[in-house]
Design goal:
Strand order of the largest sheet: 2-1-4-5-6-7
Number of helices: 17
Distance between the termini: 30 Å
Strand content: 5-15%
Helix content: 55-70%
Bound molecules: adenosine-5'-triphosphate
Oligomer: single chain
Shape: rod-shaped
Largest sheet: 6 strands, antiparallel
Radius of gyration: 81 Å
CATH topology of the domain at 1-139 and 663-736: Rossmann fold
Number of strands: 14
Length: 736
């Protein structure tokens, strides 16, 4: 026995708490119409998680809460609690007793509890299915629902039987697997679409990466070329510099000396410009000399003339003197001479002295002759004076002439000398200038070479920078590179090659290689991840297919085995009920009719039969065949109400006995039975109660007589159901 008790409070007509204990394999609930018996069955449905309010004869959750009687009687919550014995661990929970409770509030909110702990509906459902108590309630047969299985179509029947056989758990698993499969397929689609989306980008990046890789190769090539090129260029520049210096330095020194030399020569020539002035000076001296000579000649002629005059005078004097010879021995007084002497002593010039003396002498001569002589003498003195002056002047002229000659000769000599040194200087200037030109010519050649080297060195430096920026620092590590001799033109070829590679790198348009490689790696990783994801999903898809196939196979096997077992029991109960005959379940395929050309089912359904219609195999379902004893008619349609009820009960019992649920509630399943059939029904109940605990809502005395516990339900004036435990005799009375 599993079911221990049910406690209802505020649920439907049960305003106050009522408890039913099920300590007998068969319990019966009896009472007048409308007293609330069916509400008890619905209490079971409710507490077991029924979600359809309609199945509990309500429209809203609120309809389940006691609403009868006066104002004060209205309650705000309906609660039902059911207690199971779990010593055999029928429920997959480690407690000896399992209490399930459900509460609904007026705001339509529900609460679920397992052993007092709040849980979700899902937990209740799982717990119940572990004990083979489905929410579908195949073990709770409501009033008027006994022949539901007969009324149902073949597919619904199959579902009911599957549920009763406990295959629902597999079905749920299958549905869940199918849902997972659908989700997996959706995920696969999204992953595939993501892969498709990134594919062109990945392809583009791959091409870029190939370009980058090509550029990496080109860079490597360029780097190696650069090393050789730069090393050779460095050596070339160094050796050129040494060579140029060795050529240039002595020439520069020579040029400096030549400059000095030419400066000296120029100075000499510069100085020779004063020669004209000297020639003029020479001419000046010459003309002065000429003038002095002319004056000298004049002076000499005048002197000759004066000397002639003097001679003439002297001859006159001689003549006179001869006349005066007598006077020559004339005596003069000493006293007169002394007087003259005295006078001379005071005189200053010779002239004065002469005059004095003449006058003295004259005074002592004869008076008649003395005048003439004095005249001559006077003339002579004048002439002599003149002559003296001329002689002085001549002497001066002679001195001047000599000076001029000396000056002239010196100057002339100088001029001659100068002329010689000028000639030398001129020669030197020509010589030095020629050498200078020669040296300059050579130097120009060197300078051109130097200029070329400068340009080459600049280009080399620029190339170093470019190498650094294009292929990195490593390009400048060329010190260790070995460079055997070669012709210079090979270096030019090498440079051309470098330029070509540079252009190819630039033309590659590879962009920032680091970013591209990074992005490619990211996108590729993402693609790999997606591919992995896809293969994982493929794996789980296959897995799910396998699970579904497995479940299908299991459902199929268990279903078919179940059908066989049910059929055996059905036949058994049926012949027990009808005293013979045969009944059985057949698995058949649903026949679907549809238009030939149209796959639209709704169109096919709306159409009347026509040539275009074809039959199509549908799902598997259950057909029921019955064959009553002593009657020719066959098929469910032909059964009477009572026969129908009996057939339903036989099938119901057959189904439940194959896979017995812990308990079964039958609400007036026996309503249509006559006395004889009621007895048979009673027998079957007794039989069934070996497998499942039975709770029977009934008005039938026979049924009541089979119950170990009887509960009476009555309804008072307050509209609330009341529960009382009663004896059989009372029960029959109460039931009426
Ligand atoms: P019968 O023997 O005729 O099948 P029964 O004993 O099975 O009758 P039920 O159908 O269980 O009777 O009870 C129906 C009664 O319960 C009705 O009188 C109805 O008014 C009452 N009832 C249903 N829901 C509520 C509710 N929310 N509040 C109060 N009373 C309710």
């Amino acid at each position: 026995m599993y079911l221990k008790s049910l406690e209802i409070s505020g649920f439907k007509s049960f305003a106050k708490k009522a408890q039913l204990n099920f300590n007998s394999p068969i319990s019966a609930i009896v009472g007048p119409n409308g007293s609330g018996k069916s509400n008890v069955a619905e209490g079971f449905r409710f507490v077991l998680g029924e979600q359809s309010i309609k199945a509990m004869r309500g429209k809203r959750g609120e309809d389940l809460i006691f609403n009868g009687g006066g104002e004060g009687a209205r309650v705000n919550r309906a609660g039902v609690k059911v207690i199971f014995d779990n010593k055999k661990r029928t429920f997959n929970i480690d407690f000896d007793e399992v209490t399930l409770e459900r509460v609904v509030h007026r705001d339509n909110s529900n609460e679920y509890f397992v052993n007092g702990s709040s849980v979700r509906l899902k937990d209740i459902v799982e717990l119940l299915s572990s004990a083979h108590i489905g929410v579908s309630g195949h073990h709770i047969i409501s009033q008027g629902e006994a022949d539901r299985i007969l009324n149902a179509n073949i597919i619904e029947r199959r579902e009911m039987i599957e549920d009763a056989l406990g295959l629902k758990a597999y079905q749920y698993k299958k549905i869940e697997s199918q849902r997972k499969l659908e989700k997996t397929e959706d995920n696969m689609k999204s992953v595939e679409s993501l892969r498709r989306e990134i594919a062109p980008h990945l392809k583009f990046l791959k091409k870029q990466v190939e370009k980058v890789e090509r550029v990496v190769e080109l860079r490597e090539e360029l780097r190696n070329l650069y090393k050789v090129y730069l090393k050779r260029e460095e050596l070339y520049i160094k050796s050129e510099k040494v060579y140029i210096d060795s050529q240039k330095n002595p020439l520069t020194a020579e040029l400096k000396l030549l400059d000095d030399e030419i400066a000296i020569a120029r100075k000499i020539l510069e100085d020779s410009k004063n020669r004209d002035a000297r020639s003029n000076e020479l001419i000046g001296i010459e003309s002065s000399l000429h003038k002095v000579r002319i004056e000298k000649d004049t002076l000499m002629r005048e002197l000759g003339k004066i000397e002639g005059e003097i001679s003439a005078e002297l001859r006159s004097i001689s003549k006179e003197k001869e006349k005066q010879t007598r006077d020559e021995f004339k005596t003069v007084y000493l006293k007169d001479v002394e007087e003259v002497a005295k006078k001379i002593d005071i005189l200053e010039t010779v002239k004065e002295i002469k005059e004095l003396l003449f006058n003295f002498i004259f005074s002592h001569k004869e008076k008649e002759d003395s005048t003439l002589l004095a005249e001559i003498e006077k003339n002579l003195a004048l002439l002599r004076e003149k002559k003296y002056d001329l002689e002085q002047s001549l002497k001066n002229h002679e001195i001047n002439e000599r000076t001029y000659i000396l000056e002239y000769n010196t100057l002339r000599e100088n001029i001659e000398k100068e002329k010689d040194s000028n000639r030398d200087a001129e020669k030197n200037v020509f010589r030095v200038m020629a050498r200078q030109n020669e040296v300059r010519g050579i130097l120009n050649g060197i300078r051109t070479r130097e200029d070329k080297l400068f340009i080459e060195e600049e280009a080399y430096k620029k190339e170093m920078q470019e190498a650094y920026s294009m292929v990195g620092r490593e390009a400048l590590d060329y010190a260790e590179i070995a460079t055997p001799e070669e012709v210079r033109s090979l270096q030019y070829d090498r440079q051309k090659n470098i330029e070509r590679i540079k252009i190819r790198i630039e033309d590659s348009g590879a962009g920032n290689s680091f970013d591209i490689l990074k992005e490619y790696k990211e996108v590729e990783d993402r693609d790999i991840f997606l591919a992995k994801e896809l293969s994982d999903l493929e794996g789980s898809k296959k897995n799910l297919y396998d699970i579904i196939a497995d479940l299908d196979a299991r459902i199929d096997i268990e279903f078919k085995e179940g059908i066989l077992k049910i059929n055996a029991q059905f036949q058994n109960y049926f012949s027990l009920m009808f005293g013979g005959g045969s009944a059985g379940l057949n698995v058949i395929r649903e026949k679907k009719r549809k238009k030939k050309s149209d796959t639209d089912l709704s169109a096919a359904l709306s159409d009347e039969e026509s040539e275009d219609m074809v039959e199509e195999e549908g799902e598997e379902g259950i057909d029921i065949s019955v064959n009553l004893p002593r009657k020719k008619v066959k098929g469910l349609m032909m059964l009477s109400g009572g026969e129908r009820a009996l057939t339903s009960i036989a099938l119901l019992f057959a189904i439940t006995s194959v896979n017995p649920p812990p308990f079964i509630i039958l609400d007036e399943t026996d309503a249509a039975l006559d006395e004889a059939n009621s007895r048979k029904y009673g027998d079957m109940i007794t039989n069934l109660s070996q497998y499942s605990q039975l709770i029977l809502i009934t008005h039938n005395r026979e049924t009541m007589s089979r119950a170990g516990v009887l509960y009476g339900v009555t309804m008072g004036a307050d509209g609330a159901s009341k529960l009382l435990s009663i004896q059989f005799e009372e029960a029959a009375k109460v039931a009426k």
